[in-house]
# Entry
Amino acid sequence: MRRLNVAIIGGGTVGCGVYQALRRNSGLLVARTGTHLQINHVVVRNRRKQRPVRFSERLVSTDWKAAIRDPKTDIVGELIGGTTTAKTIVETALKLGKPVVTANKALLSEHGESLFALAAENGAGLYYEASVAGGIPIIKVLREGLVGNRLNYIYGILNGTCNYILTRMEAEGGDFADVLADAQKKGYAEAKASLDVDGLDAMHKTGLLASLAHGFWVSPDQIHVDGIRQISQMDIEFAGKLGYKIKLLASICRLSTTGSRHSAKEHQIQVSVCPTLIPQSHILASVSGVFNAIYINGDVVGETLYYGHGAGHGATASAVLSDIADAALDHINHQTVRVRPFTRHTSEGQVIPWEDIISEYYMRLTVADKPGTMAKITKVLAESGIGISSIVQPEGHKGASVPLILMIHDAATSAMQKALNQISRLNVVKSPSKMIRVEHFH
Ligand code: NAP
Ligand code: HSE
# Structure
C-alpha cells in the first residue's frame, strides 16, 4: 500500500472540511486511488482558536515553511486565502517539486499564469478544482469533459454568498447586512466580505473559466464587474412583477461572426459579472440560496447545466479531495501531470471593452409625478438612438416623486451610460437613477 502525506496549510472553514472529509472517507479513497492519503501537518495562525473540528494535537503548528519542507510531505494544500503569503506558500512548494492543491481563486486569477509556468518548470502539479463553484467539478468539465467543444457561451451563478443574500432578500425581504452576517456565520463568505458583495470573487472565478474556455489568459482588469450592494428591495420587487429575478450573473460569450446582435472576429469574447435580470422561466432563475450553477453551450454538445453547493466546508472539501486524489494518481504515475492546469491555445484572443457590449436594460428612475416628465425622458432616449420596449409606473406609490421603470431594447452600453447621465441631470428626475442588465439567453 502506497502512503502519501498531505500538509494542509489553513485550518479554517475549508481546512476543517478537508480534515473531516479525508478522515471520514479515507477507506474509500484507498479503494479508488490505491493510495492511503493521510494528513501529516495542519498549519494555522493561532493554535488556541476554537474550531468546529478537533485536530490531532501532534499535527498542528504555525510554521508553514517547516510543513512544506518536511521530506515526508508529498502534497501541499494551500487553504489560507489571500494573495501574499499564499503566493509564497505555493511558490515554495512548487520549487521543491511538490504538487499543490489550492482553493484560492483570488491568487490564481491574479498570478495563475506565472504559477502555472512555475509548476511546469518544476514538474509539479497545481490543482484548483475548489477555486470555482464549490462542489461542482467545473474545472474538470472545461478541461476534460468539453475539451472537444468550441464554447459559445458560459453563464454562471458563481458566488454562493451573493446568491444567498439575493434569495433571502427576495423571499423574506431580509436586510442586506443581517443576511450577509448569516452567510458569514455559515462559512460561505470570504474573509473580506467585500470580495463577495462587490463581485470580485465572482470576477476571479469568471476569469479562470474564461481563460480555460478560450485558451488565452483573461486577467481581472479585463472583466467588467459590478456587485450587489446597489440592488434594493424595490428593484427585486419590480423585477418580480415584470417576470424576472435578479442574479449576480457571470457571462463569458464568444461573439458570433454571423450573429445579429454582435459582429466579431473569431476570438473576441465578452466577459462580465454584474447583477442581471433573468426571466423567471429560465433554469438559472431557480438557482437559490448558496447554490451555484453554470450553463454552457458548446458547438458539439449543445446546452449543458451544472448545479450544486457553491460554498461551505463540505462542497469545497469535496473539490479539494478530488484534487488531492488527482495529485496522488499523478504521483503514482511517475510524477506525470496528466492534465495541464491551463493550456494556451490561441494568441489572438481579445476581450471586448464593456462599453461596446450590446444588451437589453432595466432602468429605474425616481421622477416628479407631473405632466411632461415622460416626454423629457423619452426625448433623451430617442436622441441617443435607444428604443424602449415598455414603460411601467408601478401602482401604489404616491407623493411628489414616484418610481418609473423603463425596459430598454438592445443598446450599446456606452450609449446607455451616457443617456442615463443625461436623464439623471433632468430637473424632473429626483434621485440617482439605476440601470441593470437584462439577459434573455438568446
Ligand atoms: P478561513 O476560514 O478564513 O480560514 C483561513 C485559515 O488559514 C485559518 O485557519 C487561518 O488560521 C489560516 N491562516 C491564515 N493565514 C495564515 C498564515 N499566514 N499562516 C498559517 N495559517 C494561516 O478561510 P476559508 O473560508 O477556509 O477559505 C480558505 C481558502 O479557500 C480561500 O482562498 C477561499 O477563497 C477559498 N474558498 C473558500 C470557500 C468557502 O466556502 N469558505 C469555498 C471555496 C474556496 P487561524 O484559523 O488560526 O486564523
Ligand atoms: N465566498 C465564496 C462564495 C466561497 O460565496 O461563493 C466559494 O468560492
Remarks:
- The CA atoms of residues 58 and 172 lie 46 Å apart.
- The first strand starts at residue 2 and ends at 9.
